[in-house]
Each structure stands twice: as C-alpha cells, then as structure tokens.
Design brief:
The complex is a heterodimer of chains A (395) and B (323).
Chain A (H helix, E strand, L loop, with lengths): L1 H21 L6 E2 L10 E7 L6 H20 L8 E7 L4 H13 L6 E3 L3 H14 L3 E3 L16 E3 L4 H14 L4 E7 L2 H14 L5 E8 L7 H9 L4 E5 L4 H11 L6 E3 L6 H7 L7 E5 L14 H15 L5 H20 L3 H9 L4 E2 L4 E2 L14 E7 L2 E4 L2
Parallel strand pairs in A: 2-3, 2-4, 4-5, 5-6, 7-8, 7-9, 9-10
Antiparallel strand pairs in A: 1-3, 11-14, 12-13, 14-15
Chain B lengths: L2 H20 L2 H26 L7 H17 L5 H23 L4 H21 L1 H4 L12 E2 L2 E2 L3 H23 L2 H11 L1 H6 L4 H27 L9 H14 L6 H23 L6 H17 L5 H15 L1
Antiparallel strand pairs in B: 1-2
Helix pairs in contact in B: 1-7, 2-7, 2-10, 2-11, 2-12, 3-4, 3-5, 3-10, 4-10, 8-10, 11-12
The chains are: A alpha/beta (395), B mainly alpha (323).
C-alpha cells in the first residue's frame, strides 16, 4: 500500500514538474529548414483551433502552415529560414494569454499572429504591449486596434465592423430604404455589429425602428421577426453567423416577409446557404472579394492574389479557402514583408508594419498609418446577392 | 521536529526562490494562474471537503470579483485597492443572500441550484451591457497599485498572488484545526448527528459558503488586474466544472490538495497543448478534455481521497515510525 502511494506521489510530482519544464521547450514547428546556414527567423501564432471559434481557426492554421512551407521552399526570408510555431488557445482568453507568453518567452518570436476571435485577441494585447512584440490579429472588432496610441504594437487584417456597416448603410441609402429593423446574435460578434451599426445609422439618415436579438443556440426566431413585421420596417439587417443566421433567414421566408434582407459578412460561407435550405436566396451582404473571385473584373488589383490563394489552398487541402484563411494570408505576408525590410528587430518590424502601403492582399488593399492599424477601406468589400444558392456580384 | 513544518518551510523557500530561477514570464504566467485558481480551490475545498456542500457555481463568484474590479476601477475610477476590496465584498454579500435558501437544499438539488446561479450570473455578464460591456467585455483595467507599488510585471504579480495563497493556506489551516473546523467536519460526516450535538449547521454551512465565495471573488479581482481585459467567457459553466475537478483531483479536506490539484490540471493542460498536435496532427484542444476525463476516473479509482491525501498519509506513517 505504502509503495503504491509513494509511486503515485512521485508520479504526480513528476507530471507537474514535467509540465512546467516541457511546456518550456518544444511547440509545434512547421516547415522544413530552408537552405543556408543562417539563423532562422521565428514567428508565432495563437489560433482558435478548437472550441467555439474553431471554424475560423482551422482554415487560418492551414493557410499559415501552407505559406511557411512555401516561403522556406523558396529560400526563406533574405536567406533565413522561417520557423513558425502555432499554438491553440481553445477559443479561451486565459489560454491565449499563456500561449502568447510562451511564444514570446520560450520561442523568442519576432512577432505574433492571432487570435482568430476578438475576446482572445483583446486578452493578449496587454502582454504584447508590455513586451513590445508586434501582433497581428485576425479578428473583426475595431477596438483591438483602437485607440491606436494604446495599441502601438497591435495590427489587424480583418475588416473592422465599421467598413461593413458603411457598405450596408450606403446600399440602404441608395435604395431609399430608411426604416431599418436590426437583428443580431447575442455575443461579441453581434454586439460589435450592433454598436457599429447604431453609431453609423443616424449620420446616414437611417432610422432603426426595432432592435431584436437572439442567442447563438436559438432554434426559432419567429417571435423577433413577428415584431419586425409589425414595426413597419422597410428592410432588415441581421448581424449573425450560422447556424443561427441560417435559421433566422429561414424563419424570415416562412413568415412571408417580402422586404429586403441584408446580412453581415459573418454569413460569407457555403455553410450559411446550405443550412438555410433554399431560404438564403435574395439575401444581400457585403463580403470580401474571395467568394466572388470569378466574377470580379480582371482590372481589379486583387484578382491575381485571390486566384493564387484559391489555387494553392485547394490543391493542398482539397477544399475551398474562405475569408478567414484570407486574414491569415494577409497577416503572414504583411509580417514577412516587414521582416524582409526590418530584419530580426521587433521595433523595426513594428515600424515597417505601420508604414505598409498598397499591400495587395486577399482581404483588400492595405494602407496602414500611425492612426490606422487595419488599413482597409470600403473598397475591400463588394456587395453580393445570393441567387439559386450562388453568390452573385452586385454592382 | 514535525515533518509537516519541514514540508511547509521547503514550500515557502521554493516559492521565494522559484522566480529567480525560471526568469520566464511564461512560466511565471502559468504559476500565477495556478496561484489564482488555488485560492478558489482552497475555498471550494472547505465548502466541499469540510461542510460537504458541492458548488457548480463558483465561476460566477470568480467572475463577480473580476467584474467588480473592472467596473469600479474603469467607469468609476476607484483606487485599485478599494476596487479589490469590493471584489471580495460583492461576491461575499451575494453568497450570503443566496446561501440561506440554497443551502437548505441537499445533494443533487443543491448542485442544481448552484449550477443555475452560475448560469444566471453568466447571463447577467452578457446582458447588462451598460455595466459589464456585454459580450465584448471591458478593456483598460489599470494595474493594481498598493501604496506606490504598481503590479505591472509578472514577477511582482507572482509574489503578490503566492503571498496571498500562503496567507490563506495558513489561515485556513488554523481554521480547520479550531472548533469551527471540527464542527464543519462533523457536518460532513453526519448533519443530523452534528445538529444533535448542538452545532448550528445552517449557520456554519452558510459561513463556509460565503468564505469560499469571498476567496473566489478575491481571485477574480486579481485575475482582472493581471489580464487587464475581461469578457464573460472565462466565467461560464465550464470554469465551474474545472474548479470542482481541481478540488476533487487534489483531494478534499487536505492541506496540499488545492495546490496539487490545480497544479496538475493547469500543467497538464499546458503539456497537452503542444503534445497533442505532435501525436495527432490536426487535433485541437477538444482532445484535452478526454485526458482530463481519464485522469479524473483514474484518480477516483486509485486514490478517491485525491492527491493531497498522499502527503498527509505519509506524514502520519513517518510520525508512527519516529515514535
């Protein structure tokens, strides 16, 4: 009996110390060593690979791994091989903080990419600001990079809510639709949309006649839509992601509402159309150009990079890329371009990121500045309409 | 000399010297998180191990502490120490308020009531936008400052958190060897017998509940000052379950249990973070849950009293040997 107890005690102590020591080394390195004996450049990524935001994180991880291999096969950055460490934060904020500390302390990375969603991204900011490490978030909320004077080291590649809102407001104004019903899912994404849309509505001359919310797990939004019907709205704007976004769209059709239905870019994947079971036809939304690459004119500066991304991603992973992976593509190349110019120096990399001009990426054409750490404008998106289960570019 | 004192003295020396050896903010970060969770699990250990009441709602008290600090130190510009006091008082008051009716319930019904309370508070964090910032959370929490000392670096925070753990452990150790501790243990063994012996069981259970809520609130307040950003998601049901897991794995009603249980669960999470993708490419954190499940089952089978009981047991046998 006592032997077994001692054994157990030993085992417990061993596991704890092993945890502390082992987690100190290692991590997942991708990409083979490229040619040359030069010191590798290390960068890190904290991605929501599992947990509620995993549908965002997985294409992002795939994209980053694919690009690291590509860079190293082409000889690395100025002859230095690139070493990328990707850590999973399980869509959790505390985990994200620990993961980014690990990347900075143990891996001594030059810069960090991540996270996929806004909460974990926000949680990492204090650490990167204190340690003075450049960070490029892949999440939407504009307060990740604002106010810029408190976020000197933080950049992001996803379009801010305000870009999407301005496109929606522009469309509504153009069509003369002034009375708007706004529906949103009750989480950080929906809430961010609500704040941005409410702020933009009045200057654009739009009146929000009713505001309704639903939970991400709700299976029936008929009550909310009934109130919308009674409100006399001329158009409905919904800020949500599937599956709830699909369900509310289905309910909308079932109730026989005939006013225009606008969604946010959160529904910009095939999943939304499939889950809505035909009800998605007629939905209008602003979206990154990736989804309609085949339809945008050849004169569009992004056309080439979009086609390259689709080609490379689908060859490697046998599935189509989506805009989330596109955020990772842009974060990766923004960083590589900056490192190329700055060398292995965190402060210089930050300065170069801020000076980014006319970088043509998957999500748009980036022009960063000391007051704008996102660098995307309304022209980074297009309005599309879903017709017959397909995305159709609107003029 | 008492073996126990040697053990504890060694632990204190390790605590003092460790940061000088590791010199890594990552390891300090893990140790800080372990420390914060240990504070909560100590309280939960008293509630579950001594008073015999299970709570699946302690993430709510943790969150209430964190939100008290976040709201009061940003929107109301309270001095950071005053906000930390509020992080202790608010969950304590709420626990006192709900404790009276809730603790009349027994076993599964009590579990359900605490679970419901946890979910209610989580909904409040999400919905009370004007106060809590809703699902987007609250940013701009200042660093904790005590009389000119600003806790802005991990190493300072490490000493703060672990000094707190130390003080609480010693306080709790004295408590459980007092009349109150014996009375609590009597309640765990048999509430009826305790009552017939003249112990005010209702009042003691309430006190244990409030005390554990106060500790969870304190940890929450410190968490907010450490991460400087909070949103509702770390304070959900999942976290409550994690706390119970830590308490049970560590061993209820033992001195070392909270530290061992928390250390094991957090350290294991960090190992699995990189070990799982190495073993199964493409696998994410969901596989970790399987490992946690396996550990819980193994410990419940092999050592149902938890890891903490190992040290206690060997101490006794050593004493016997000396005698």
């Amino acid at each position: 009996m006592r032997k077994r107890i001692k054994l157990l005690a030993g085992l417990a102590v061993l596991i704890i110390t092993a945890g502390l020591l082992l987690s100190g080394c290692g991590g997942k390195d991708t990409g083979a060593k490229a040619g040359g004996d030069k010191e590798p450049y290390k960068i890190g990524a904290v991605i929501d690979i599992s947990g509620p935001s995993s549908s965002l994180g997985i294409p992002e991880r795939n994209t980053l791994q694919m690009l690291t291999e590509k860079i190293n096969a082409a000889g690395g950055i100025n002859g230095h091989p690139l070493e990328l460490t990707i850590l999973d934060n399980k869509s959790d904020e505390t985990e994200a903080v620990l993961a980014v500390k690990k990347l900075i302390d143990q891996q001594k990375v030059l810069a960090v990419i991540g996270c996929s969603s806004s909460g974990p991204s926000m949680a990492m900011i204090d650490t990167v600001q204190k340690e003075k490490v450049p960070m490029i978030s892949l999440a939407a909320a504009s307060k990740i990079v604002e106010p810029v004077q408190e976020r000197q080291w933080v950049f992001k590649t996803a379009q801010s809510d305000i870009v999407v809102v301005n496109r929606l407001a522009g469309y509504l104004k153009e069509k003369g639709l002034n009375k708007i019903a706004f529906l949103y899912m009750n989480n950080a994404y929906g809430d961010g949309g609500r704040i941005a849309f409410t702020a933009a509505a009045e200057p654009a001359g739009l009146q929000i006649v009713t505001e309704e919310k639903f939970e991400a797990t709700d299976v029936d939004m008929t009550p909310q839509l009934t109130r919308v019907k009674a409100s006399g709205a001329q158009a409905v704007v919904i800020w949500a992601i599937p599956p709830s976004a699909s369900i509310v769209t289905k309910n909308f059709k079932d109730l026989g509402l005939s006013i225009p239905l606008l969604h946010s870019h959160g529904v910009g994947n095939q999943n939304f159309i499939d889950l809505a079971q035909g009800a998605a036809d007629g939905v209008i939304l602003p979206i990154g150009k990736l989804t309609v690459t085949g339809q945008i004119p050849d004169s569009d500066p992004q056309k080439e990079v979009l086609a390259t991304y689709i080609d490379e991603y689908s060859k490697k992973y046998n599935s189509s890329p989506n805009s989330f992976g596109g955020y990772a593509w842009d974060a990766f190349y923004l960083l590589i371009n900056a490192i190329e110019k700055a060398g292995p120096d965190r402060a210089a990399i930050r300065d170069q990121l801020e000076k980014t001009e006319n970088y043509i990426g998957v999500s748009g054409v980036f022009n960063m500045s000391a007051t704008d750490h996102n660098g995307l404008k309304e022209d980074s998106m297009v309005n599309v309409k879903i017709e017959g289960g397909q995305w159709k570019l609107l003029e | 000399m008492d073996k126990n004192i040697v053990f504890r003295a060694a632990a204190i020396i390790i605590f003092l010297v460790l940061p000088l050896l590791v010199k890594s903010n990552y390891l300090l970060g893990i140790l800080i998180i372990i420390g914060l969770y240990t504070i909560i699990v100590i309280g939960l250990g008293i509630l579950m191990g001594y008073a015999g009441q299970v709570s699946f709602g302690h993430a709510a008290f943790f969150g209430l502490g964190a939100y008290s600090v976040a709201v009061l130190s940003t929107a109301y510009r309270w001095p950071t120490f005053a906000a930390l006091l509020a992080a202790v008082v608010v969950p304590g008051l709420l626990a006192a308020l709900i404790g009276r009716p809730t603790l009349k319930l027994k076993e599964l019904y009590l579990v359900l009531a605490t679970l419901a309370f946890g979910i209610l508070v989580h909904i409040f964090f999400n919905e009370a936008r004007e106060i809590t910032g809703g699902p987007s959370g609250l940013t701009g929490i200042p660093y904790l400052s005590l009389g000119g000392l600003v806790f802005d670096r991990d190493i300072k925070f490490y000493y703060l958190v672990w000094s707190t753990v130390l003080l609480i452990s010693l306080g709790v150790n004295n408590l459980i060897h007092s009349r109150v501790g014996r009375a609590l243990r009597a309640i765990r063994e048999s509430e009826h017998a305790a009552e017939t012996s003249g112990i005010d069981t209702a009042s003691l259970k309430l006190q244990a509940f409030v005390f554990s809520a106060v500790l969870a609130g304190l940890a929450g307040g410190l968490y907010a000052y450490y991460v400087t950003f909070i949103s509702p998601s770390p304070f959900g049901f999942h976290t409550s379950v994690l706390f119970v897991l830590m308490a049970v794995v560590g061993g209820l009603g033992t001195f070392w249990g909270p530290l061992l249980g928390t250390g094991l669960v957090v350290a294991l999470g960090e190992i699995l973070r990189w070990a799982v993708p190495l073993a199964i490419p493409g696998a994410g954190g969901e596989y970790q849950i399987i490992f946690f499940g396996v550990i819980l089952v193994v410990i419940m089978i092999v050592k149902p009293e938890g890891l903490g009981s190992i040290i206690k047991f060997s101490k006794k046998s050593v004493e016997k040997g000396v005698r």
